[in-house]
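queue> holo job accepted (magnesium ion)
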Amino acid sequence: MTTVTTMTARAQPSVPTAPRGGERSPLLSLRGVSRRFRTRRQETLALDAVSLDVQAHEFVCIVGPSGCGKSTLLGVAAGIDTAFDGEALFEGQPIRGMARERAVVFQEPALFPWLNVRANVEFGLKLRGLSSAARRAASDAQLALVGLERFDRAYVHELSGGMKQRVQLARALAAEPHVLLMDEPFAALDAQTRDELQLELQSVWERIGTTVLFVTHNVREAAILGDRVVVMSPSPGRIKSVLPVDLPRPRLPDDYRVADLAAQIRAELASDGEREPRYAI
Ligand SMILES: Nc1ncnc2c1ncn2[C@@H]1O[C@H](COP(=O)(O)OP(=O)(O)OP(=O)(O)O)[C@@H](O)[C@H]1O
Ligand SMILES: [Mg+2]
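queue> job finished
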């Protein structure tokens, strides 16, 4: 893995990557993680000895060509996929399955159509046996955080795509996770809604100080959101470079510094022979 030093980037040590702030133990640590898929027709090395440390409160974006293993990496971090080689640690303990501390947000909101917004947000809390008063307090707080307090009684079919993603985020946050694992959560949204949600996510992240590992194909989105941008190379999936982002927040999509950084990320990706249109700026 190389580290890119740019106008907005400082030099970084080699793997595992340590962000700003010295020798804290990482919240999430992948050490030499490899994942091989075997089907009847073929064998794919989806991840090849990937090492990555994510510190508490960090916002780390992952970009890379389609099929390079981004979702596989997120699945390992979530504990959805445990059939990997190497070591995956969360808060110092081996990841052996899914856990409430690690919430996953997908591209397509996985909401229950027969429940209203509030009931969707409270769903996991009900399973955990929280009292209705505690659930109500949590859903009030999360719906306010994502600006949906007036839509608490709406059903999923009454919501726009952006609102559905806000509900999904509120539901994930209601579990008080220690890390949010987000797999292209805004990819299906129109450009304007995406801009809005990027701003909102920055604001939510700054307010509650959670940790985020965020997969995206959109290099400008990575430049807007990330404290670091991890660039993966195509099959077998490896970490190719890490770009630290030292821009003030909130970052706006039209800021020339964001555009400069997005161009650098795109250049990193393009050096793998990827064609540009896959990486919208
Ligand atoms: N369950 C599976 N069985 C077989 N192969 C798989 C499985 N899951 C992923 N793969 C393979 O592993 C590789 C990485 O897949 P992955 O979904 O992690 O890529 P990705 O970077 O998330 O791609 P995209 O950007 O298109 O979402 C691909 O070659 C894919 O075909
Ligand atoms: Mg994917």
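queue> The longest helix spans residues 191-208.
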